[in-house]
Each structure stands twice: as C-alpha cells, then as structure tokens.
Amino acid sequence: MSRCFFVSLALVLSLATVTGQQKTIDLYGSEPRAAHAVRGVQANTVWVWAGTALTASTVRQWFQFGFPTVQYVRWLLVWNAEGNAANGARLIHADDGPTNITTIAEFTGLTSTNPIVSGVDITTAWNGLILGSVTKNIGIQLRGNPTIFRASIEIVE
Question: What CATH class does 20-156 carry?
Fold first, then answer.
C-alpha cells in the first residue's frame, strides 16, 4: 500500500474522532466588555429581572429543533455580593409571559465585597431542556443588590 493511502486513512480517522465544539451564550457582559455592570435593586428580598422585563433579561433557546444532547454545560457568573449574604443571582428558564419560571442554579450566601468568579455544572438540566423539545427563555434574576459583571453559559457539544 502506498504512503498516500496511510496518510489519507490517518486523516479520515482523526476527523472521525473530533468530538465537539465549544460555544458561549452571553447573558450579560459579552465581548467587548461593557464599561459598567448591572446592579440589583437595593434591599429587594425577592427575585427580580436584571433588566426591565423578561425579554430584556433573557435569551431565547429553540430546544424543539432536535438538537443533540451536549457533553458539558457550565453557568459562569462574575459578580460581587456587596458584603450581603442575602444578595444573589440565579439562572432560570421560563416560558413566555413569563410563566413557569424555574431555577436551574443559584449563587447566594457569600459576604465578599470583591468580585467573585462562580461556576456550576448545569449539564443535566440543559440536556433535560433539549430532551423536553420546547422553546425556553434563559436568563438571570437577582435578589438584593449584587453587582453582575458577566453571566454566560459555556457549552461543549
């Protein structure tokens, strides 16, 4: 067999073993970084949208189009609890309206006054949404007055 055959076979096998790609969904703080951060409502004890309404605070995900499940998904949040353990941020999915607001993950209970980088594996929840095959609004809600510098979802397909 020729050397060209083995090189071609090696190329085909290497392409067949490529398993995925990474993509990021920016919920807040996409590149280039904004010169400011979003701040929660002072002394609020309930979960509220970071923006003015559902559509301003979420990204729409069209899970009903037969996407394959993914290998890994992480919610990344860069934030400051502003020294108050009651302050927090949560990742949610919701139907239009908004109705059926469901928490995927949340960060609370920190008393730091410095920026914090928090991340949590949400692969099981994300794959559940894919298998549910319905459109969802994905976004963040805030409690108290934390400062959010960046909120994103990192996906490895």
Answer: mainly beta
Average pLDDT per run of 10 along the chain, which is 157 residues long?
44 49 82 55 73 72 92 95 91 90 93 93 97 93 88 95
How far apart, in whole angstroms, are the C-alpha atoms of residue 72 and residue 124?
9
Rounded Cα distance between 63 and 69, Å, is 10
**Assigned token pair, 140:** 């963040």
Q: What CA–CA distance (Å, rounded) separates 82 from 111?
A: 7
Residue 118 in tokens: 């928090």
Domain residue ranges of the chain, discontinuous segments joined by +: 20-156
Report whether the peptide linkage leading into residue 98 is cis, meaning its omega lies within 30 degrees of zero.
yes
